[in-house]
Design a protein that fits this description.
Chain A is α/β, with parallel strands linked by helices. Chain A contains 16 helices and five strands. Chain B starts with a helix and ends with a helix. The chains are: A alpha/beta, B alpha/beta. The interface between A and B is large, with 112 and 114 residues. β5 of chain A pairs parallel with β4 of chain B. Chain A: It is found in: Cell membrane.
Chain lengths: 391, 388
């Protein structure tokens, strides 16, 4: 047992030295997590987009149209930019000066006063997803509110008192309650996931590069011998450095970054800590296994850069898992990010517990065992190959 | 000119023989393009699990439930009888939303008492929450308008006038260029474009320093007649031709088959894409000429290209970012490209609408190419001086 701890300790110290002397590993593991976390985090600092530019072509030029434009400008999501006429409004959108346009035709006020339906045209640039959906949503609400106002006046004119007129105006109402992200902000939705993704990718890149470097320099037999010939000791002796370092990062992210970016944390810290330990127990062997397949450190770094977006996109965080094609659901289930993000999102954002997600936690445990096996096989392959070359 | 072509051919040979190049430039582009295309094959997130909390248990609540089930994004999977269970099911990931019909709903509607139908969504998953809200709101607002219309008609009002009172201002909304908010049509072209430009930068960042590492730099120097411009133009030509292959892959195969794009794109898109690739090559060459250590150069490339997509404003608008992030975004050529891409690809506008973006892209070349030239020429002159 003493030998075991001594071997683990020696491998741990060797990994510290390796990282300290390898510029790339040093930059990746010590600088990138902190810089990225603040860097990416700051993008979503304001969380929601406000004042989306909307061109307005007002051919009615009436009291009602002016009041409507004023109401639009008061909306949090809209900033009005007046256009001379409809073609001018369209041109503004084509040049990217605004995200859509609204057209108030001549005779609008006249029609509404005559109790006829008035038509308004809203065109939004659907190529820009978020701003256009915000504009469409806000202006639909505004049109419904104005409509309710007109009905209220009509009901009062019919002799109903204000209370009864109000009740008649809108008999069925929608009470919308977005849970766990009440402002429906993009930042609150994305930030927890992005911070976890940064940790994951840097850990993967670091472990991958480390193993690829050992492979490139022919040091695998030496490392295994330092582990007393045991592949498991080699894996966890080297891996211990990454486990400790990334647990510190996780703690830092969940405390400092969450508070500076004002990301709410609704779960129990113990649950998240345990989840991260389990996650890193899966990622470290995964990184070792991947690293054992690349010819050198450079290719390992290059390939891992391009894994970030695909892994994030198939993990079911930004796009629902059930909406992926079946073969990609299988692939997604083999990536530790998928079960991790599911449990992490439930705990951090919705206030769930590990117990609530026990099936997904078992999924992550199974992946941990699977990648440990692959990592050991990868190390054995490298060990045998390099040992035979040295002989 | 002949020298430049020889260097370009030599570079192509390196591209197909060195894993640092062929993996990044030839293997990854089709792999990632098809993955992205296939990933969003369902185009929209549909049939999300939703619970019903029906305290009304009336014909009207059943009718509303039926209408909700008919929508694209909602699939009623379970019944609940209180808010605690509802929240638990959301935390366990079993449902994404729930709709509550209050007790005595029908009676209240008839007795002029306003009724509130509550929609709960798991807004921590914003994509599904927004889709469910959009569909549920459409159903419930239409249903609410139907109730008003019936009431007005019952008073003897002509249906036309009643309709005008139900909806005095009719907002005709046109979602241009992507009316269904199809995720595949929207995300796939942008994701592929960002991936391709990242690949060009990550490869060109090794164009000169990898020659030093592999000991082939002097051979290149001789072939180029000690001219930095010959090396940069020759190598640049090879990478530009790779970029054109990527363009063919994207616009002739992936965009038409996976993102409803036109085969071959358009002249405007081709010009814009070519200038983007030239800007990426120029930036990559500059870094490669300055940094001799390939791993450090690779790290610089990693750090520079990784945030491109989020900073470009493609998914989250730039104007909603803090001012320093908005400035940082302009350090990357993908930022002006994406503005031009909206115009030339999604909106199919003529090139003159994207002149500003083209000029901005050219600026990256104007700034970085001379720097690359200076550093490389300096490097080329060094061994000659030592030799002398």
């Amino acid at each position: 047992m003493r030998d075991f701890f001594r071997q683990i300790g020696r491998l741990f110290l060797r990994e510290v030295k390796l990282v300290a002397t390898n510029h790339s590993l040093l930059l990746t593991l010590l600088l990138a997590p902190v810089v990225y976390a603040f860097f990416y985090g700051s993008i979503y600092q304001y969380k929601v987009e406000e004042k989306v530019l909307l061109a307005v072509a007002d051919d009615d030029k009436s009291e009602l149209s002016r009041a409507f434009i004023q109401q639009m400008n008061h909306l949090q999501t809209v900033s009005v930019e007046m256009a001379g006429d409809l073609p001018d409004a369209q041109e503004k959108m084509y040049y990217g000066h605004c995200m859509g346009y609204i057209y108030l035709p001549a005779g609008l006020q006249k029609k509404i006063l005559a109790l006829q339906q008035g038509d308004i045209v809203l065109a939004v640039n659907g190529a820009r997803f978020l701003p256009s959906s915000e504009l469409a949503g806000s202006l639909t609400t505004l049109a419904l509110t104005v409509g309710a106002g007109v009905r209220l006046k009509y009901n009062e004119a019919q002799g109903l008192n204000t209370k009864m007129a109000m009740q008649e105006t809108q008999p069925v109402n929608l009470d919308y309650r977005p849970l766990y992200n009440t402002r429906l902000s993009y930042g609150a939705f994305l930030l927890p996931g992005i911070l976890a993704l940064i940790l994951q990718q840097i850990l993967l890149i670091g472990t991958c590069e480390s193993v690829a470097y050992e492979k490139e320099t022919g040091n695998v037999p030496l490392v295994v011998q330092m582990g007393g010939g045991s592949l498991s000791v080699t894996l966890w002796g080297k891996g211990l450095f990454y486990m400790l370092l990334f647990l510190c990062y996780a703690f830092f992210f969940l405390t400092v970054n969450f508070s500076t970016l004002e990301v709410p944390f609704r779960g129990h810290p113990g649950d998240v800590a345990l989840l991260f330990v389990l996650f890193f127990f899966t990622l470290i062997p995964m990184g070792f296994w991947l690293g054992s397949m690349f010819p050198n450190q450079l290719v390992a770094a290059q390939m891992m850069v391009f894994s970030t977006y695909p892994i994030f996109l198939i993990a079911g965080y930004a796009w629902p898992y059930d909406s992926l094609p079946l073969p990609l659901q299988w692939v997604s289930s083999m990536v530790p990010t998928t079960p991790f993000m599911r449990v992490y999102q439930s705990i951090v954002q919705s206030g769930g517990t590990l117990k609530d997600n026990y099936a997904t936690v078992l999924h992550l445990l199974a992946l941990s065992a699977f990648y440990t096996l692959l990592a050991l096989l990868g190390l054995r392959r490298l060990y045998k190959r390099q040992q035979s070359i040295s002989l | 000119m002949r020298t430049i072509i020889h260097i370009a051919i030599r570079e192509w040979k390196r591209i197909v023989s060195l894993p640092e190049y062929y993996l990044v430039l030839l293997v990854l582009p089709p792999a990632i393009s098809f993955l992205y295309g296939f990933m969003y094959d369902k185009q929209m997130a549909s049939d999300q699990p939703v619970a019903i909390w029906d305290e009304a248990r009336s014909p009207l609540s059943r009718q509303f439930t039926f209408l909700l089930e008919e929508t694209e994004s909602i699939h009623i999977t379970t019944q609940v009888d209180n808010e605690v269970t509802l929240q638990k099911l959301i935390q366990q990931g079993k449902i994404q939303a729930a709709v509550h019909f209050p007790k005595d709903m029908d009676a209240h509607i008839k007795s002029r008492q306003p009724v509130y139908i509550t929609l709960y969504t798991n807004a921590a998953s914003m994509v599904t929450a927004k889709l469910i809200y959009r569909d549920a709101a459409k159903v419930l607002i239409t249903a609410g308008s139907g109730v008003i219309l019936q009431k007005l008609v019952k008073t003897g009002m002509p249906s036309g006038k009643a309709m005008a009172l139900v909806q005095p201002i009719k907002l005709d909304t046109y979602i241009l260029y992507n009316p269904q908010y199809n995720y595949q049509k929207y995300l796939v072209p942008g994701l592929i474009a960002v991936g391709l430009q990242m690949m060009i930068i990550m490869a060109t960042i090794l164009a000169l320093n990898l020659e030093i590492k592999k000991g082939t730099f002097y051979e290149l120097q001789e072939l180029a007649g000690n001219s930095a411009s010959n090396i940069l133009l020759g190598k640049g030509l090879a990478y530009l031709s790779v970029g054109w292959l990527h363009y063919i892959l994207a616009t002739c195969i992936v965009y038409p088959f996976f993102a409803q794009g036109h085969i071959g794109g358009s002249f405007a898109l081709f010009i814009l894409f070519s200038v983007l690739i030239m800007a990426c090559i120029s930036i990559g060459m500059m870094v490669s000429a300055i940094l001799n250590d390939v791993m450090v150069a690779c790290d610089v490339g990693l750090f520079y290209t990784s945030p491109t997509f989020v900073f470009s404003g493609f998914t989250f608008p730039r104007w909603a970012m803090p001012w320093y992030d908005q400035y940082y975004a302009w350090l990357m050529p993908f930022t002006p490209f994406i503005e031009g891409f909206y115009k030339t690809y999604f909106m199919e506008l003529p090139l003159h609408y994207a002149y500003r973006e083209l000029a901005q892209l050219l600026l990256y070349i104007v700034v970085t190419f001379p720097i690359a030239l200076f550093f490389l020429q300096h490097k080329l002159n060094k061994p000659r001086l030592q030799h002398a």
